[in-house]
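User: I'm writing a short report section on ligand binding and want a predicted complex to refer to. Could you take this sequence and pyridoxal-5'-phosphate and write out the structure as tokens? A short remark afterwards would be nice.
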Amino acid sequence: MNSDINQSNKLEFIKKELQERKTNNNLRQLNAIYPKDAVTVIKNGKRLINFSSNDYLGLSKHPQMITASQDYLNRYGTGSTASRLVSGTYDIHEKLEEKIAKLCGKEAALLFNTGFQANTTIIPTLVNQKSLVLCDRLVHNSILQGIFLSQAQWKRYKHNDLSHLETLLKKAILQGYNRILIVTETVFSMEGDRSDVDRLIQLSQQYNTLLYLDDAHALGIMGNKGMGLTAYQSGIDISLGTFGKAMGSFGAFITTSKGMRDYLINCCPGFIYTTALPPAVIGSIDAAFDMIPNLDKERDYLLQQVSYLQNNLINLGYQVLNSSSPIIPVIIGNEEKTLKLSNFLENNGILATAIRPPTVPKNTARIRLVLSSQHQPEHIDYLINLLKQYHEF
Ligand SMILES: *Cc1c(COP(=O)(O)O)cnc(C)c1O
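Assistant: Sure. The structure tokens for the complex follow:
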């Protein structure tokens, strides 16, 4: 019997961790808001323009989405009552998967309950201790968790540096791995920049690797008819889309081959052992896929506003990452200063959350501004004016 275990306070580690975070100024807290419309929230009784949501097209409050959700709810009930392989596959799940595959120009699609769940559970179903995973240095935490779970060897290549990736591939193919998996994002969630999808496909084919692309931030706003940067591309084994961002709903899906879909249905724990997405959610996703192909005007407007805001911030002297998406990171560096700017904006009617390590690398704390097609030019000018007034940097 270990006496340390008997005598210590079993919850001491919690106290210690929270205290440490307080001391280091990185204790995180939840802050409830009320979403008034696609770009306005009420926080502590105060109206704020929201520049921190991923609702790029404002669909989460769209009447057509809400009606579809209500319709499916009325017809199918509040829950799907079982996992997909038991009795949780309704006709609406299957129809949605067929619709997604068709719209994305792929053989097959498969729903997952969240993007986080998909990344953490699919990767370990593809690779094991004898495999190697090569990923971008800045991939989303859910991808890292999937890699850790898989127990594969892993290496990161420098952010968006595909010649570094190729150097790693050249070495790796001589080392007897059973499989090599390349995994990255098409649009980086905290940087807003893009991967070179064509080159990734070419490298994957040249070195005979699996290729897994997380298209979460491209779906809805990029690619032909907004179907993302991986749609209609062959040579990608799995591409992941999520419904919680531009789609204005909840959940995730992959597009893939029929064979891979069958394999995952049989072997992927995070697909097998979880309750199927509920009808109301399926209804809203279905409506989003009806609407998104017709929103070219909104997408054009959104990208126009992105360069307008970017150019203005650069002219004001802010360090803005060279983003090619509605994600515009304003790098402040120091965590305290970043919080200070975020508070200043909030006191003046703007919600723009500070993003700090470990979500982003050390010394790159930032305000991650996110534009929506529902932001009016006056919202953006108001933000620019506030940042002009703020002379701290
Ligand atoms: C948001 C996000 C996820 C997680 O998706 P959820 O459905 O919210 O769990 C995964 N990957 C990337 C790149 C994301 O931005």
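A remark for your report: The chain has a mean pLDDT of 95. Residues 114-116, 119, 140, 142, 185, 189, 214, 216-217, 242, 244, 252 surround pyridoxal-5'-phosphate (CB under 6 Å).
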